[in-house]
Specification:
Shape: rod-shaped
Number of helices: 5
Structural class: mainly alpha
Helix content: over 70%
Number of domains: 1
Strand content: under 5%
Order of helices and strands: HHHHH
Number of strands: 0
Length: 164
């Protein structure tokens, strides 16, 4: 085999490697980015699901506070201790809702995030429609969270009050 034929074969192999290698490298890069995004979405979901589960546990541990099974027609007054515990429970709830707002409302880059935000937005609207939550929001909760979230939640509360 002559040097010229070896150089020719090397050039052909180099072109074949470039022809297949560059698209393969791009495909691997894109696939890895997608896997990282999916892993991040799953971790976000698990973290928020854990917060939600903790809130439900709080509801179960405090049946004297009408947190989970809310009846707007109940006129039972809460004791000062119950009012304080309810306020803390609502702070925990609003903290979780704020997390969902920032994790899912901002960038709907994926179908998963869009679907998650739809569910969380419905949940925010449910709480905004509760008179006990509205009172706590107005009294204490509205000012201690991120201003963008506060504006969004405040609008939900205001709209729910108008409809009531």
């Amino acid at each position: 085999m002559t040097l010229d034929s070896l150089i020719g074969i090397t050039a052909v192999l180099s072109n074949v490697a470039a022809f297949f290698g560059i698209p393969l490298a791009i495909w691997i890069f894109v696939r890895d980015r997608q896997q990282v995004r999916v892993a991040r979405e799953q971790e976000t979901y698990r973290a928020l699901q854990s917060e939600y589960s903790n809130f439900l546990r709080l509801c179960l541990e405090n049946p004297d506070l009408p947190l989970h099974d809310y009846d707007p027609d109940t006129k039972k007054a809460l004791t000062p201790d119950q009012q304080k515990r309810r306020m803390v429970a609502f702070e925990i709830l609003v903290s979780m809702l704020e997390s969902a707002f920032f994790l899912y409302n901002r960038d709907h880059a994926s179908e998963f995030k869009r679907r998650q935000w739809t569910g969380w937005d419905h949940y925010l609207r449910e709480w905004a429609g509760r008179r006990d939550f509205q009172a706590c929001w107005q009294e204490h909760l509205g000012g201690q969270f991120d201003s963008e979230f506060v504006a969004y939640m405040g609008q939900l509360v205001a709209n729910a009050k108008k409809r009531a």
